[in-house]
């Protein structure tokens, strides 16, 4: 898939043209990847109205029929997987293997959502007066989804699949960097499987319109919940606006994730985890390893293995070779920020053991040693292929360094002693922790989300269902409730 010509944005079950368009560029070479319809405030209001109008009928469907749609969506994604893989490479600058992962993971997300619909939707409560007392869950209404550019297909699907199967309707706004992978692809899929009009809507817009469109998706009275994945600064703003309107939100934000390698770890496995965790998708993953903490007793042998692996990662346009594991950063702004962090670290005494070169949007896999807390690369989320390596002496010291950040998304611990690994994981202030694996982990039936400044709420499984359903208390009086005789 090279140049892509969208049919419009998707609203009320129809492809709709906006009054103007914006350009989606291939980050590898700056070429035009797609000319996309630039929806405005009026277009967004209409999409929300469509979703609101469709809600009652969608929520009233037997849940098994909503499940059938999820399975049809999964099958249609499989049919279109090659197109998605090429789009992940061309629109998002991702490696071929990343595209394969996204295409496969999407199917599992919708299958998992289908399975979650068979779970409990309430419980029976004890009642002192002998009532039948039950708590039930029901869908809320319109859920707005604002998705990111880094893993656009997977992260969009994770946000809307569970609310959708629970009976909510959706208005999705993908990132202006990846409007197809994060939005229009799903519009094509839902259109193809015959999802009822208005149940799923996609509004694409440029950076010029994103403020007005985003505010409408949060503040419109018909919208009852908001899903957002992206930067902490934007997430804080969205959460504050949602709170002002007393709306539910699930917010997954950035990370400064640590991988702790103990002296009893399998070094070959640890080096592979570090390589994958630090450099997968150029480090443009919220769970990327951004603090690699290595016990001083195995520091040198580990570094030899890590340097060897990182040095083999090839840099280049993902569409030109599937061997180009390190593709471009998404845009010039991101590349400039990563370059600033590397240069700041080197100026303050750090050493580039591998890489360090920045050529336009391409950044080599870079390993930095001698990193100290006064450096930007220690303090800030990098979102680039840069691995700061820091030695430690004790588990307590490693935990303290890992926790020395406002973020708290994910973490990893490498050790042959599972009890030790669990003890370290318990001390880490992160929403997720993985023993003998990378911080980069995601399964659709598991509770995904962060602590501290990394977000609020959880995606996946029953947690994804609970986020965007309302709990109601219903009782049936059976003669045991005494009313005061004065009444």
Explain this structure to me?
The protein is an alpha/beta fold. The protein has two domains: 9-253 and 454-473, 3-Layer(aba) Sandwich (Aldehyde Dehydrogenase, Chain A, domain 1); 257-435, Aldehyde Dehydrogenase, Chain A, domain 2, CATH 3.40.309. Helices cover 39% and strands 22% of the residues. The protein has 15 helices and 24 strands. The strands form seven sheets. Strands 14-17-18-13-12-20-21 form a seven-stranded mixed sheet, with helices on both faces. Strands 9-8-7-10-11-23 form a six-stranded mixed sheet, sandwiched between helices. Strands 5-6-24 form a three-stranded antiparallel sheet. Strand 17, helix 12 and strand 18 form a beta-alpha-beta unit. Helix 1 (41-60) runs parallel beside helix 7 (210-219) and helix 4 packs parallel to helix 5 (152-165). It is globular. It starts with 8 loop residues before the first strand and ends in an 11-residue tail after the last strand. The model has no long low-confidence stretch (mean pLDDT 96).
CATH topology value of the largest domain: Aldehyde Dehydrogenase, Chain A, domain 1
- Approximately how much helix is present in the residues? 25-40%
Strands, count: 24
Shape: globular
User: Major sheet: size, sense and barrel closure?
Assistant: 7 strands, mixed
CATH class of the largest domain: Alpha Beta
Strand content: 15-25%
User: How does CATH name the architecture of the largest domain?
Assistant: 3-Layer(aba) Sandwich
What's the number of structural domains? 2
Number of helices: 15
Structural class by SSE content: alpha/beta
- Poorly predicted ranges: none
Question: What is the mean predicted local confidence, pLDDT?
Answer: 96
Strand order within the widest sheet? Answer: 14-17-18-13-12-20-21
């Amino acid at each position: 898939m090279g140049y892509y010509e969208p049919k419009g944005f998707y609203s009320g079950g129809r492809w709709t043209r906006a009054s103007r368009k914006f350009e989606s560029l291939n980050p590898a070479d700056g070429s035009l990847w797609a000319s996309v319809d630039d929806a405005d405030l009026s277009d967004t209001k209409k999409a929300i109205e469509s979703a609101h109008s469709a809600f009652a009928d969608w929520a009233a469907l037997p849940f098994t029929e909503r499940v059938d749609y999820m399975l049809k969506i999964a099958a249609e994604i499989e049919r279109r997987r090659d197109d998605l893989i090429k789009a992940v490479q061309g629109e998002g600058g991702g490696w071929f293997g990343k595209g394969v992962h996204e295409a496969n993971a999407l199917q599992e997300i919708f299958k998992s959502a289908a399975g979650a619909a068979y779970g409990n939707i309430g419980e029976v409560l004890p009642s002192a007066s002998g009532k039948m007392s039950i708590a039930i869950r029901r869908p809320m209404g319109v859920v707005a989804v604002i998705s990111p550019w880094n893993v656009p297909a997977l992260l969009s699907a994770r946000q809307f699949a569970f609310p959708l199967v629970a009976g909510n309707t959706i208005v999705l706004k993908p990132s202006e960097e990846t409007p197809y992978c994060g939005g229009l692809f799903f519009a094509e899929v839902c259109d193809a499987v015959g999802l009822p009009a208005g149940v799923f809507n996609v509004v694409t817009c440029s950076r010029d319109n994103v403020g007005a469109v985003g505010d409408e998706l949060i503040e419109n009275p018909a919208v009852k919940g908001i899903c957002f994945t992206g930067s902490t600064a934007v997430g804080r703003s969205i959460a504050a606006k949602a709170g002002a309107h007393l709306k539910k939100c699930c917010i997954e934000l950035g990370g400064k994730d640590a991988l702790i390698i103990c002296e009893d770890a399998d070094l070959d496995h640890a080096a592979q985890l570090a390589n994958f965790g630090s450099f997968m998708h150029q480090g443009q993953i919220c769970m990327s390893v951004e603090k690699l903490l290595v016990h001083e007793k195995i520091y040198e042998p580990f570094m030899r293995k890590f340097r060897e692996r990182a040095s083999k990662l090839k840099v280049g346009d993902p569409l030109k070779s599937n061997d180009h594991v390190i593709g471009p950063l998404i845009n010039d702004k991101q590349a400039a920020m990563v370059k600033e962090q590397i240069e700041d670290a080197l100026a303050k005494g750090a050493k580039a053991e591998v890489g360090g070169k920045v050529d336009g949007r391409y950044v080599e896999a870079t390993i930095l040693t001698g990193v100290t807390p006064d450096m930007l690369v220690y303090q800030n989320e990098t979102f680039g292929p840069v691995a700061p390596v820091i030695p430690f002496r004790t588990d307590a010291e490693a935990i303290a360094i890992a926790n020395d950040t406002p973020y708290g998304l994910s973490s990893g611990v490498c050790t042959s002693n599972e009890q030790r690994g669990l003890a370290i994981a318990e001390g880490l202030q992160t929403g997720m922790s993985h023993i003998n694996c990378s911080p980069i982990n995601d399964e659709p039936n598991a509770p995904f989300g962060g602590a501290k400044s990394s977000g609020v709420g959880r995606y996946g499984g029953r947690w994804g269902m609970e986020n965007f359903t309302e709990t109601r208390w219903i009782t049936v009086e059976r003669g045991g409730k005494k009313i005061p005789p004065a009444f």
